[in-house]
Amino acid sequence: MNDSRKIKIGILGAGISGLSIGQLLKDKFDIEILESKPVCGGIARTTDVNGIAYHTIGGHCFNSKYEDVLSFVFGQILPLDQWNKIERKSKIKFHDYEVDYPIEFSIKQIYEHDKELAKRLTIDFLNSEDDGKYANLEEWFEKKFGKSFATEYFIPYNSKIWKNDPKKMSYLWVEDKLPIPDKDSFFEGLISNTKDKMSHARFYYPKSNNQNTFLDALAKNLNIKYNYTVSSIEHNKDSNKWVINKKDEFDLIINTTPLDKLIDCFSDAPADVQASAKSLRKNGVSNVLWKTQSTDKTWTYIPNKDYLFHRYIHIGSYFSPKENYSVSEVIGNHSFEEMAKAGQSDNFLIEPLAHSISEYAYVVFDENYDKSTKSVKDYLQNIGIYTLGRFGEWQYYNMDVCIKKAIDLSKTITDKYLKV
Ligand SMILES: Cc1cc2nc3c(=O)[nH]c(=O)nc-3n(C[C@H](O)[C@H](O)[C@H](O)COP(=O)(O)OP(=O)(O)OC[C@H]3O[C@@H](n4cnc5c(N)ncnc54)[C@H](O)[C@@H]3O)c2cc1C
Asked: In this entry, which stretches build a coiled coil (predicted)?
């Protein structure tokens, strides 16, 4: 096709992925974004609670190892001088004391509290044998970090955050997500103050003290239809158009909405694909925003299985000047009353202010993951639908990876449809 303006692209969902691909294609194609909510931003959106930006899901800091993502965000969307750069300061509530995250560089701190445990963690780490073969996530932790780190920290924390037994989970998602020291850097950590080198050691947060500033900048000049829930998708063979909700026609569709529900929109999807979509597993989260005591930490991880929350996100530390607010997070549906009660056992949490429950937060990499995601994605590819994003690809993507995937897909689509 020569005149790309005539190619109408429907983008399903106005989260980070839909907004990014919309920005990247809007000058070359006729773009319309269909979003079920009255606002854009999806998972990353905040709501206002007494003037504080409350992340109803997680707490969203931004950084990236991808140069093209950084230049897209700071060059085209929200200039670098509109962001604060914040140093990560994360702690782990380990037994009855706190140590720095990542734990494998905190042997000296553990030694101050429990000499025997520090020795055991060290010996097991140095004796661990990694042959590159892992039956499941539990074995991956044992071979990468040694038995003691696995049983003392990684397995309890991951059992909590995935609400699943690491023995029944795939390890495939984890490599990019955790700092993995080799024996040399672990040893250096023992004798010096070496820390890990993750891309999130420093991160950016908008100077407005609200992530919505970034999301609104990402939505600028985009054609978005709000309050529009996509419920059916059909292909009209005569016109060669996709018809959404029996009324809106598009030449191409890019999906960013969750794959498990998307398949319900196709009345003719084969039974095995529908079954695969139904078997995709995810976890939702419940959050409470708290007024807290003062802290300079950015996150606290809590592996203790007897304590409801697995993590505090000290959102007030993202702000400038800092404020005393944190978000406590737990997997699954938990009421305000239950969460407020659980928080009473920690003096750090002063007053619960707001509560939210969300259905989609974490993709679960269970034993069916590979087979089910392949079946659904192959189906979409065969019928010519592009799919993108955290739940659009059923991946553990951060915002920057969603943007990276949008950049790559925009090139694929431009190359394919703008070639004369
Ligand atoms: C707890 C938690 C903490 C996180 N913390 C960070 C962090 O600190 N830093 C970071 O970079 N990333 C973080 N992330 C990841 C980040 O939130 C995601 O990568 C990103 O927001 C996903 O964007 P998306 O557009 O792919 O999906 P979504 O945000 O889910 O967007 C999908 C959109 O589709 C819409 N939609 C759904 N169904 C329909 C339908 N039928 N019709 C029309 N519209 C529909 C939804 O309303 C939504 O707006 C975190 C995620 C979680 C869960």
From this structure: none
Amino acid at 212: N
Buried b vs exposed e over 33-56: b needs ≥16 C-beta within 10 Å? bbbbeebbbbbbbbeeeeebbbbb
Q: What is the pLDDT of residue 420?
A: 56
Q: Distance, CA 111 to ligand 1 centroid (Å)?
A: 40
Q: Does the CB atom of residue 169 touch ligand 1 within 6 A? A: no
Q: Is 42 in the pocket of ligand 1 (CB under 6 A)?
A: yes
pLDDT digits (tens, 9 = 90+) for 71-127: 999 999 999 999 999 999 999 999 999 999 989 999 999 999 999 999 999 999 999
Whether 326 lines ligand 1, by a CB cut-off of 6 Å, is no
Residue 270: count other Cβ atoms within 10 Å of its Cβ.
Answer: 12
Mean pLDDT of 344-353: 98
- Best of 398, 400, 404, 405 to mutate for ligand 1, by most ligand atoms within 8 A of CB? 398
Q: For ligand 1, is residue 299 a contact (CB within 6 Å)?
A: no
Q: Is there an atom of ligand 1 within 6 Å of 285 CB?
A: yes
**Summary mean pLDDT of the chain:** 94
Label residues 328-358 b or e (16+ Cβ within 10 Å = b): bbbbeebeeeebbebbeebebbeebebbbbe
Instruction: Show the tokens assigned to 147.
Output: 């038995």
All structural domains of the chain, each given as residue ranges with its CATH number in brackets, are 4-40+68-75+212-281+365-417 (3.50.50.60), 103-195 (no CATH)
Q: Where are the beta strands (DSSP E) in 348-419?
A: 349-363, 386-387
State if residue 161 touches ligand 1 by the CB under 6 angstroms criterion: no
The predicted model gives 391-413 an average pLDDT of 97
Q: Is 15 in the pocket of ligand 1 (CB under 6 A)?
A: yes
Nearest to 315 by CA among 279, 291, 340: 291
Q: How confident is the model at residue 342 (pLDDT cuts 50, 70, 90)?
A: very high
For residue 265, the ligand 1 atom closest to its alpha carbon is 41
